[in-house]
Design goal:
The protein is built from one helix and ten strands, in the order E-E-E-E-E-H-E-E-E-E-E.
Length: 105
């Protein structure tokens, strides 16, 4: 599985959560959500609103979701390394279910 490296403080631009088990197909724009908690500083972040990639990885680990699509643009720092250790920046839609959590800072 490919490790997704990202900056945990940044919010994805768009998210689609799909779960057949829960009958869910929700689209959200995290920057318009209600709050963001920084687990590394053990404090709420007053200057950011929404759900970040860390929280979405936690959802993916529950096994309840078929897909967790995340849209990242040029303003998000997200990348992976291939088998030749070459860095590939990510821009566009990805499914977090196909990735494992890599470095997040």
């Amino acid at each position: 599985m490919i490790k997704l490296n990202y900056l945990y403080i940044e919010l994805p631009k768009k998210v689609r959560l799909i779960s057949k088990a829960m009958g869910m197909n929700h689209y959200i724009e995290p920057e318009t959500a209600f709050g963001f908690y920084d687990p590394y500083e053990d404090a709420p972040l007053a200057y950011t609103m929404g759900i970040g990639v860390d929280e979405l990885f936690k959802l993916s680990e529950t096994g309840l979701f078929d897909h967790i699509f995340v849209y990242l643009d040029k303003d998000n720092i997200a990348f992976y390394y291939d088998e030749r250790n070459e860095r590939h920046d990510i821009e566009g839609w990805i499914d977090l279910i196909q990735f494992e959590k890599g470095s997040n800072h």
